[in-house]
Write a structure and sequence with these properties.
Elements: E1 5-9, H1 12-21, E2 28-31, E3 47-51, H2 55-60, H3 62-65, E4 72-76, E5 90-93, H4 98-118, E6 119-122, E7 125-128, E8 133-136, E9 139-142, H5 145-156, H6 163-171, H7 181-197, E10 204-206, E11 209-211
Parallel strand pairs: 1-2, 1-3, 3-4, 4-5
Antiparallel strand pairs: 6-7, 7-8, 8-9, 10-11
Length: 212
């Protein structure tokens, strides 16, 4: 099982404090140093641990800003005001024991993975699998589970897919099945999108098949 790797970004005292207890954690801590983390060889980071006293540096760091879609856990001695809300997903108000810190970090990483897997960006839309909605700006349409599977399949394939291939991958039908299931579902999806978003080219049909 791959170990969770967290980047630590804080003051010298903060880094030293975590460094002293790092062996008790189930995850790997890597302490941020610009000279040892060139962008071209950026390691796989699952999340960031940020010291509140380093937030001004955090904002200015080009390296940190390039680590996108990673959960950020803020360490603070006291509760923080709304100005710092942008920086973190959740916070730890110290002091806490090692087990409590570890539990909070695990929960944050798990929650982030769930959210990431539940949300898919397609063109200028977002699919929320939990709510079964296709969203753009402040508007949305509701999709069935099968419609979401169909959209994801078409989007993830580089080349157009024929009706028979779609039937096999989404419905597990035999390639020789004689059915209008694919056409019916695509028609309904197109109708929903056209009605709400006025988009006539979300799903494209050609001689080679369907694509997004």
């Amino acid at each position: 099982m791959t170990k969770t790797t967290l980047l630590v970004f804080g003051t010298k005292n903060f880094n030293n404090s975590l460094n002293e207890i790092r062996e008790f954690f189930d995850f790997t801590l890597i302490f941020f140093k610009k000279e040892t983390f060139p962008t071209s060889t950026m390691p796989t980071i699952n999340g960031l641990l940020v010291d509140i006293d380093a937030c001004s540096l955090f904002e200015e760091s080009e390296f940190i800003s390039k680590i996108s879609n990673k959960p950020i856990l803020l360490f603070t001695q006291v509760d923080v005001n709304n100005k710092l809300q942008f920086y973190y997903d959740t916070k730890i108000i110290l002091p806490l024991n090692i087990d409590e810190i570890q539990t909070k970090i695990k929960n944050l990483i798990t929650s982030n993975k769930f959210i990431k897997n539940s949300s898919v960006s397609i063109k200028n839309y977002t699919i929320d699998k939990n709510e079964r909605k296709l969203k753009r700006n402040n508007f949305f349409i509701t999709l069935t589970e099968r419609e979401i599977q169909l959209i994801e399949l078409l989007f993830n394939e580089e080349n157009p897919l024929t009706k028979n291939i779609i039937l096999k991958k989404v419905w597990n039908y035999s390639e020789n099945a004689d059915t209008h299931t694919v056409e019916t579902h695509i028609y309904r999806i197109r109708k929903k999108i056209l009605s709400k978003f006025k988009d006539e080219s979300f799903i494209i049909n050609s001689k080679s098949g369907y694509t997004i």
